[in-house]
Design a protein that fits this description.
Layout (H helix, E strand, L loop, with lengths): L1 H12 L12 E6 L4 E5 L12 H11 L5 E7 L10 H9 L6 E6 L2 E6 H4 L7
Length: about 120
């Protein structure tokens, strides 16, 4: 199942709009209702307006009424072990629990993290 999520993340990364960083990223979210949503990063000349692939995919899921992430795959052809940035980690934590898997690719293998590993002592209400 996670291989399929990673394939979708890889595919999404090919559609990234990254004229400034040349660092494409794709993500694929699996929700508690077993739906998948993909996203890619897209940049803007005002760098603060750039949107990460993870937040793009999560936003699509939220727009479709989903509220719980079971897993998210993140991929960049430019870097193995491409984990989410700090902002994305916080957004992921808003819609996940301690069992949510965050999947990255290292060579030909998949590595699974939990949000508590990537964002210990995370902020939540």
């Amino acid at each position: 199942m996670y291989e399929d999520l990673m394939k979708k993340a890889i595919d999404a990364s090919t559609r990234a709009y990254v004229p400034y960083s040349n660092f494409p990223v794709g993500a694929c979210v699996l929700t508690e209702n077993d739906k998948t949503y993909t996203g890619c990063n897209f940049e803007n000349s005002s760098f603060g307006l750039t949107i990460c692939a993870e937040r793009n995919a999560i936003g699509s899921a939220i727009a479709d009424g989903e509220r719980k992430i079971k897993a998210i795959a993140v991929y960049s052809p430019k870097q193995d072990n491409c984990t989410p940035c700090g902002a994305c980690r916080q957004v992921i934590s808003e819609f996940c629990d301690d069992n949510t898997d965050i999947i990255v690719k290292i060579n030909d293998d998949l590595k699974i993290y939990k949000i508590t590993e990537l964002l210990p002592e995370r902020f939540s209400l």
